[in-house]
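Justification of computing resources. Each target in the renewal requires a structure prediction run like the one illustrated here; the chain below, 384 residues long, is used simply to show the kind of job we budget for.
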Amino acid sequence: MTESDWNRLEASLPVDWRDATLIGRADLGDGPSPIMVVGGTAYDMSGVAPTVSMLIEGGKTDTAAGKSLGPLEDLGLSASPDAPYRLLSPIDLQCVKAAGVTFAISAIERVIEERARGDSSAALAIREKLESVIGGSIRSVVPGSEEAMALKASLIEDGMWSQYLEVAIGPDAEIFSKGAALSTVGWGAEIGVRSDSDWNNPEPEVALLADAHGNPVGATLGNDVNLRDFEGRSALLLSKAKDNNASASLGPFVRLFDSGFTMDDVRTCEVTLKIEGEDGYVLDGVSSMSEISRDPTDLMRQAMSEHHYPDGFILFLGTLFAPVQDRDTPGRGFTHKIGDVVTIRSPRLGALVNRVTTSKDAPPWTMGIGALMTNLSRRGLLAD
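Resulting structure tokens:
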């Protein structure tokens, strides 16, 4: 991918973006601002609500009150830090949550990691055994159903049970905190894997944006970067496997639900993945949301649970994609190399494009909540 391709936002927009209602964030020269795109025109909404969370919670998404920035394609939004207008992650103060093991194939891969103790060289033999024993049965049951509980009892009796199978077919989904508010990166940014990880992969996902009451208001694309070696050694290392600098990307925009784009579009969408390495390596994959084991609304309900999220939350819904294609050594499967370009695409959500580096070398996360409030105050956006 050339630098010009890297910065072509137009190629990453939804196919019907002129008919969509999009919401996001951009640095327009003086700091982060919520922006909306309606009818192909971009609007600066910072004068209406200084953060995306306030925009959503206040129900202030009428662009008539915003400042027109003109046609989106003329705005020159870029991922470059030196660009006059820079596109950012489309969320800000929302909590960042993720659901795990929501597809049968990912459940099997998590069990593989666990049994391999994070050693990628042992994965192939374990995968073949697990697929032959539980591959068909785990794909056919509804989590929490009587059939699922019967399968659980059978697997326990056969010595095949795992904590990952519990969240795959049991009544309770795995919901975890992926990162802190404001820690996600956006379209075109570098994404990070820990420098001490040698078995890792992208996780292309659909993510749902929820308001403070847990109601889904829109959807976007996400990369829930995963370290298979860390989590495979112990599930108690989940935080080290998941929450690292630049380890979660979202974008390019959140598409708000309306009469032309609903939850049913999320339920039936396909998410494609392309990984292009500087060594000429190319990997293609596809994840169909129709194969998810739990309905997105159920995952949202379980994420909300008995919590209170006054600024709302974003929820990564999980992925079907589990890369097993060998990259170098036969039997060791896939792992990232520095410089990989990851493109996650779904026609009605657009494309999320990021280049891989280490979390140590990715640009440091410096604008936390305190810095954001200071910036908004300096710009006179917190007066009311």
